[in-house]
Amino acid sequence: MRPRGAGRGPRAHGEPSTRMHRAAVLTRPRALPRLPRHGIWVLAAIALIVAFGLWLRDSSLVAVQKVSVTGLTGPETARLTTQLEAAARDMTTLHVRTDQLEAVVRPYPVVKRVTAHASFPHTLRIEVTENVPVASVLVDGVRTPVGGDGRLLRGADQRALPVVPMSVVPTGDRVADKTALRAIAALAFAPPALRSRVQRAVTTPAGGLTLTLERGPELHFGGGDRLAAKWAAAAAVLADAGSAGATYLDLRYPERPAAGGLEDPATQRDPETANAALPGASTTTGAAATATPAGAAAGTTP
């Protein structure tokens, strides 16, 4: 018989060593490094500053009290100014909500954009940029300002603008008539000094697109192409003393503009011939019916 416990000695001695080996393999989690005391104070100070800034941003200490609105013209100026001022007084100079100002002007097509500039602690300046009307479409005696892109600018300043007649009232917020759009585009290309002299822009069978100047000749553009070149030619011809008295300018070919309806240069220079051309005189000299090239001096061949 084997003694009790015989044969189990090695296994009994091996168990504790195995446990110790496994314990050695397992790594203990490292403790997180502690922040130094001054670091904690810095983080606390930053948190307080952020919280104070968020509170001050909407505080009455920096509430908007003085509002100025510039850039508006036309009949809607007073109403729109009041609405912008009311919206601004719900803001602070540290928290200007431009989206709210844009929401106020959105129903007004005359407004192109709005910007705001705050001055600490209580002042807000609002600048409005308007869409500039280049003409007024005329339907049944009612004029509506229109921008160069054909957008109807209801509420814009009803100053003296060139008239573009239309037979049908435009629907929506833009002009859809192609003939009217051609005239509007021509006016948009016009130099401001010349556009202010245009009274009417129509399309005629003889001259195509035709613009009537105040105290000046008609401008026959023909088609709606090469508008910049045609306006440049018109400005050059009107500045030339040789075109004085012309009843129309043919600008269909801007490189060869012509002034029409001029008197015969001979009658302009010779008083006796001019007197002979009067009714009842024995000799008459008819007015020239053909167009004289722009820039041609009296008595010279173009």
UniProtKB/TrEMBL annotation:
GO biological process: cell division
TM annotation in the entry: 38-56
Keywords associated with the record: Cell cycle, Cell division, Cell membrane, Membrane, Transmembrane, Transmembrane helix
Disordered as annotated region, ranges: 1-21, 259-302
UniProt feature coiled coil, ranges: none
Cell division protein FtsQ/DivIB C-terminal domain: residues covered: 145-252
Superkingdom of the organism of origin: Bacteria
Protein name stated in the entry: FtsQ-type POTRA domain-containing protein
Organism from which the protein derives: Baekduia soli
